[in-house]
Amino acid sequence: MSLLGDYSDPDVARKLSAAITRAVGDRPCSIMEVCGGQTHTIYKYRLRDLLPESVRLVSGPGCPVCVTPIRYIDAAVSLGLDHGALLCTFGDLLRVPGTVMSLEGAAAQGARIEIVYSPLQAVERAEARPDRQVVLLGIGFETTLPGIGLALLRARERALVNFSVLLSAKRVPPVLDALLGSGRAAIDGFITPGHVTAVIGTKAYDGLCARYGVPMAVGGFEPLDLLGAIHMLVGELARNGSANLNAYGRAVSAEGNLRAQQVIEEVFEERDGEFRGLGVIPGGGYGIRGTFSAFDAERRFDINVESREPAGCRCGEILCGILQPWQCPLFGTDCTPDTPVGSCMVSNEGACSAAFLYGG
């Protein structure tokens, strides 16, 4: 189906809803939307109300703030308070609780923290403040990594000695591999993230579809994008197929963004990645290559922190699709957007935040 014009057109949504109902029949299936932006669209537009009861949607580990380990927050706080670094960060990281405090709490105690909208702005801060160490808090999946890479390339080009990156970068395919291989959550199909896949290309999931016999469909972020991806998936499941599909062709190709991939390859290397609530996933992260080690904050600073997860928080199980947000005993009581306990309640891509704002 070609979706043109208004991507939230209710008439087209109803037609897609009917097509999904016909395709799935009585066969129950669980579909995971991987990206937090997709999760918020599902809740905001109440897309579950348009689906038959046999289709269950669960949220996945595609929110970069949500999967950032608590140790990273504690390290960033230490850089600001103990080392006096000027921290440059994206805004949704500010209120994520650490073991003792958030970055917002560190700012209240005197840490210098500035919000940036591009990694290159952090380089500009370093150029403007040669008397102070500037650290970019570089988190995210493959979507944000090219921008962080360009910042490191520019810092090297300008021989900046006061700029570095504290990196917590993740890879989507390995985390899906870990979820499928663990058997912790029964997922029949995946809506893969549009922004990430625009960078890495749909081919990145071919092996997973073949190995596990699970279909995947790249989805966008508008209501009809997601309903279109669900329609593709339930149709594939009805045929017992495991194809790697593309419901976001206007932005995503099989090969992805080759220039962005070149930047990632030049600046970063694949490493094991620690995910909050999920543990260490082999090959699930990126590190800064040795040729850029002078700009690696973990090597530049002596960071020594002791971290622990908050008691009662079930973010890990929510990120795995095992629990829905409202099944966490802290949800809506001890843990709210005003008083968050877990990272899933803080980020504007977090599943708990979406469920609280728009209702389960």
User: Averaging pLDDT over every residue, what do you get?
Assistant: 93
What's the order of the H and E elements?
A: HEHEHHEHEHEHEHEHHEHEHEEHHH
Question: What is the CA-atom radius of gyration, in angstroms?
Answer: 21 Å
Helix content: 25-40%
Unreliable stretches: none
Distinctive features:
single chain; 360 residues; alpha/beta; Rossmann fold; 2 domains; six-stranded mixed sheet; five-stranded parallel sheet; 15 helices; 17% strand; globular
Topology:
Blueprint: H1 10-24, E1 29-33, H2 36-44, E2 55-59, H3 64-67, H4 70-81, E3 86-89, H5 103-108, E4 113-115, H6 119-128, E5 134-140, H7 145-157, E6 163-170, H8 172-182, E7 189-193, H9 194-200, H10 206-212, E8 216-219, H11 223-238, E9 244-246, H12 258-267, E10 268-275, E11 279-288, H13 297-300, H14 315-319, H15 351-358
Parallel strand pairs: 1-2, 1-7, 3-4, 3-5, 5-6, 7-8, 8-9
Antiparallel strand pairs: 6-11, 10-11
Helix pairs in contact: 1-11, 2-15, 6-7, 7-12
